Amino acid sequence: MLSHLLIQDLAVVSQLELELGAGMTALTGETGAGKSILIDALGLALGDKADAGLIRNGGERAEVAASFDLDDVADAHTWLEEQDLADGADCAIRRVLPASGRSRAYINGRLASSGQLQALGERLVDIHGQHAHQSLLRPAAQRELLDGYAGHVSLAREVAGLFRDFRALDERLRTIETQGVERAARLDLLRFQVAELEVLGLSAEDIDELDREQRRLANLGLLQGTAGRLLDSLYDGEAALCDQLGRAESDLGGLLTFDERLGEIRDLVAGAAIQVEEAASGLRQYLDGLELDPALLEQVETQLALIHDLARKFRIQPRQIPETLERLRAELASLEGEDLSVEVLARERDAAWGRFLDQATILSAQRTQAAARLSATVTASMAELGMKGGRFEASTLRGEEAAAGVQGLDRVEFLVSANPGQPLQPLAKVASGGELSRISLCIQVATAECAAIPTLVFDEVDVGIGGAVAEIVGRLLRALGNQRQVLCVTHLPQVAAQAHHHLLVRKENRDGQTYTHIAHLEPEARVDEIARMLGGATITEKTLAHAREMIERAAA
């Protein structure tokens, strides 16, 4: 509910701060005092179009800040979380309107768009009268209200979920069928490509080994010549290194008689001679294994040429051929599997449609029964509120199955005839703002326990009524206030006397400027205000007694 409202430099308000509580709150005051300023401020806070003309004369900017308690408003709290704007159990909305430039809006201290303000506002406040936030004029809200009144909200959600399941399966099936020609062509290409790559039958390591073998075979002459020359240098030649090392070892051995320190050097030379001999033996074995084989070279080069051709064709590196083959195989298996899945998917889609139709039919029957009860209840309330002969009808029209959706099979619409002889027409087309407010009041009272919006504002709900009807309106508003927070702008004492709280709007002229103030009335001050509304300029003791009696009777 709305717990706090701050208004600065808006219209005739210089600064105003209000703490608001649960129950019904009446706003009264002289004509022209600015009683609707609260509604205008709320409208601005909840996303109404900002107009620089609303800024108080001489002010640089106007500002409205509204705080809401979300303890019992799960829908608004969920929306805030989805928008990443949640901040505990409370919600603070702020709208700043500068004299120049665009207005700025904040939700829980974070910048927000006017669209976000409107979406949040629809979950927090319902303004009844000629204002933009009246949710009852929206077909979706009418359907949700009927479902809540009937007590089958869970069934409605189940129907919506079943339709989404059906739609997901249907869209998947349509996509596969639409892509049939493209899919067939893709299948043919994949089968050809997989067969082409499978001919190789090589791993990335095999391809590397082929590349090394080609380099070896192509350079066999160079390998033989160089290895033979090195063998001569190390062992087989006339001045072979092995012989030179042997003589060096012998010479060093002869010198040991004169200096034993040469022993370590002789041992190193002896070791080097052994390693050279082993290297020569290795070269000899290597040369014995080398064999010119032109046919093998041609075979390896042919295979490598095929590998590089395929790599260029697929625009990949040669080593990526096995990886590409596996990827194409996986895609081919997936598409071939869809041949079987289309039939299965069609059966699943048909079964999902059947489940949706079964539950939607039950929902439709329950809506029809609930609509009849709601129609009778609201029509009776309209008669009590001075619209005798008027009618209300919660219409549930079952459409074609092809037009079904998450809402089920029905199109729900609230129709009304405010006067005898007038045809029923959509609630949104009711011409009189006062009649619309009273009809809305009847609907809200009838559905008070199931509605989700916590704060209701009724702007001059008493237009065109008086006497006993006005008292009934007041009682209905008070009853509604026992369920939710109700703010009511009224001119009638019969309505104001029923309120749990009373706000007085006063206008003052000071230093050539006009100021509007709103104050909470204590019990005795409230008696005086009700008496003023009853007696006008002249207030007698009898008028005061009547006012006190009205307040006491309402609280009894």
Question: Which helices and strands, and how do they pair?
Answer:
Blueprint: E1 2-10, E2 13-19, E3 24-29, H1 37-45, E4 61-69, H2 74-82, E5 90-98, E6 104-107, E7 110-112, H3 114-124, E8 125-128, H4 139-150, H5 153-178, H6 180-198, H7 204-218, H8 220-236, H9 241-255, H10 263-289, H11 294-314, H12 321-384, E9 391-398, E10 410-417, E11 425-426, H13 433-446, E12 455-459, H14 467-481, E13 485-489, H15 493-496, E14 501-510, E15 513-520, H16 523-535, H17 541-555
Parallel strand pairs: 3-13, 3-14, 8-12, 12-13
Antiparallel strand pairs: 1-2, 1-4, 4-5, 5-6, 6-7, 9-10, 10-11, 14-15
Helix pairs in contact: 4-12, 5-12, 6-12, 7-11, 8-10, 9-10, 12-13, 13-14, 16-17
Explain this structure.
- The chain is α/β, with parallel strands linked by helices and 556 residues long.
- Strands 2-1-4-5-6-7 form a six-stranded antiparallel β-sheet, covered by helices on one side. Strands 8-12-13-3-14-15 form a six-stranded mixed β-sheet.
- The protein is elongated and about 150 Å long.
- The model has no long low-confidence stretch (mean pLDDT 85).
- It has helices spanning 37-45, 74-82, 114-124, 139-150, 153-178, 180-198, 204-218, 220-236, 241-255, 263-289, 294-314, 321-384, 433-446, 467-481, 493-496, 523-535, 541-555, and strands at 2-10, 13-19, 24-29, 61-69, 90-98, 104-107, 110-112, 125-128, 391-398, 410-417, 425-426, 455-459, 485-489, 501-510, 513-520.
- It has 17 helices and 15 strands.
- The chain folds into two domains: 2-151 and 385-521, Rossmann fold, CATH 3.40.50.300; 185-333, no CATH class.
